Here is the input.
Amino acid sequence: MAAHQEKTGLIKESLNELLHIAGHSINYRKIDHNIWGKNANGGVLAFPSAIILFSIIDCLGSVFIRDENIDIIIDGKNRKIKTTSQHIYILNSKYFNLELSQFDLNNIYINFRCTLTHNSLMPEGYYILSNDRNRIPFEIGITEEFDNRIYFLNLNSLYHVTKKAVELFISDLDCGVIKFEATELNKTIDQRSKRARPHPIPNQPGQSHIPMKKWIKKTEIKQNE
Here is the structure.
């Protein structure tokens, strides 16, 4: 991670880092019995892949909180992102074009995004698949036996639509379609920031340090005896 003077440079690099790791996780195969034991069945790193992709989706949605200029059509109505739980609405914007219902967006947020991230679990009726990229990211059906909705998250497809969304998002940042300085996210990060100006280190280009008055906690490096 490079040092950035502007938040837009940091957000672009971090999004590309997240995509890079998500791609590795999806292409990885669990075949080493020394690591995975009885789970060495050739499967992918499904949970981390999904968590990373939902993190990217959250990030994109957070940029448009209380933004009146983005069109997000849900159940035929133009909706706005007003709270953190509504970041998931970005899936119905031009960046993803998934056309999910309000009911399904809520279920995907609560039972995929939140339960994976906070509990490392999924409720019954929610499944992660690693199929080819031609499938849609979220397949939703109703069971014959119990008349319940069942959700399938297709990792490869979600990865590729998320990659395209990030590319379009970065393009919009670069050409000024997204005016990041005016976003609520930018204001929020500014409010949380601590004033600390890095000082360049002489004769070490690209490196800097922050002078400290005192340390509250500091790692003591022990020399080998």
